[in-house]
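Design job #97: recover the sequence.
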């Protein structure tokens, strides 16, 4: 089968012919329908910042069809109400299944966890080997290619918004930094909550137009400056940073209210200095790492009910390198999905 692999940080991606994996134990072989192209993929391919074991096939935002199952997986598939040939989204935070975090339903926080496209081969390929049926979520009538972004761009902001719930009372002021694939989903989740004042900060006027169409109350182009507090009616109770650079984190800290929350989602490698004289009094700072299996099931349900809008542009798997270049240049209004 064809696979797109990274061998060293900054080296060109390699399109290779590799053996189709054979499922053993509880593993399931999924025929890939699509793999979303994420900014995290760029960081994985071009830097050593993230935890990655090379060489590896990239791709952690995966959908497809159940193709084959090892004997020990067949009964487990039935429990998941998934059969051979069914369309599925692949949950990517593959935990051990036994530790405290896994038992609490937060496999993405498992210390022994492995993830496709990071430590094990992912979805930039014709097939992907999934270690257990519990990582599969049935898509029902959703197109599996279009559904690929739900596995990361959809679920990660869902978890970020859910975890920020106690700051999102009616009347709360919210700032979103970045209106890429994740930011567009986040705005839709926020609009499901009552009486929020939501502003979006972007450097791309076209993406501000998308934010307006999805219900943003106000948009800020560039750094925003003093216009942010004026547009929101005061400092933000919650800032979601979907970029994660030094510059955007500085903006987040500069515009969050005392006692407010900064939720870092983007992985551009930025850092901030934390201390009494550098951050607002009693402000909270957190990261969001992917989502849980339950989060993904909830997102798929929303999508199946027609409650979510997202844009997908399909590209052939062979053009993965070109897809990375387009994403790095900011030339992607929604989500690119590689199709084998």
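Job complete. Output follows.
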């Amino acid at each position: 089968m064809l696979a797109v692999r990274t061998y060293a940080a900054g080296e060109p991606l390699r399109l290779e012919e590799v053996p189709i994996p054979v499922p053993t134990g509880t593993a399931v072989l999924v025929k890939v329908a699509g793999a979303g192209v994420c900014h995290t993929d760029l960081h994985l391919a071009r830097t050593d910042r993230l935890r990655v074991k090379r060489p590896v096939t990239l791709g952690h935002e995966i959908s497809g069809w159940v193709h084959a199952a090892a004997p020990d997986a067949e009964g487990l598939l039935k429990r998941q109400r998934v059969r051979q040939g069914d369309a599925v989204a692949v949950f990517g935070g593959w935990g051990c299944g036994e530790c405290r975090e896994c038992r609490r339903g937060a496999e993405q926080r498992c210390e022994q966890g492995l993830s496709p496209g990071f430590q094990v081969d992912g979805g930039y390929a014709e097939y992907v080997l999934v270690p257990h049926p519990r990582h599969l979520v049935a898509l029902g009538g959703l197109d599996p290619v279009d559904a690929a972004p739900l596995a990361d761009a959809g679920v990660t902001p869902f978890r970020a918004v859910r975890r920020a719930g106690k700051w999102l009372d009616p009347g709360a002021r919210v700032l979103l930094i970045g209106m890429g694939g994740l930011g567009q989903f986040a705005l839709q989740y926020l609009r499901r909550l009552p009486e929020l004042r939501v502003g979006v900060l972007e450097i791309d006027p076209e993406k501000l137009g998308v934010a307006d169409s999805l219900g943003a109350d106000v948009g800020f182009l560039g750094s925003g400056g003093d216009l942010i507090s004026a547009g929101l009616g005061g400092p933000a109770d919650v800032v979601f940073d979907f970029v994660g650079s030094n510059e955007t984190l500085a903006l987040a800290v500069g515009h969050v209210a005392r006692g407010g929350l900064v939720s870092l989602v983007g992985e551009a490698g930025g850092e901030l200095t934390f201390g009494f004289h550098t951050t607002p009094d009693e402000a909270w700072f957190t990261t969001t790492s992917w989502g849980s299996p339950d989060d993904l099931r909830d997102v798929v349900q929303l999508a199946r009910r027609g409650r979510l809008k997202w844009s997908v542009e399909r590209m052939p798997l062979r053009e993965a390198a070109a897809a990375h270049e387009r994403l790095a240049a900011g030339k992607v209004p929604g989500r690119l999905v590689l199709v084998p």
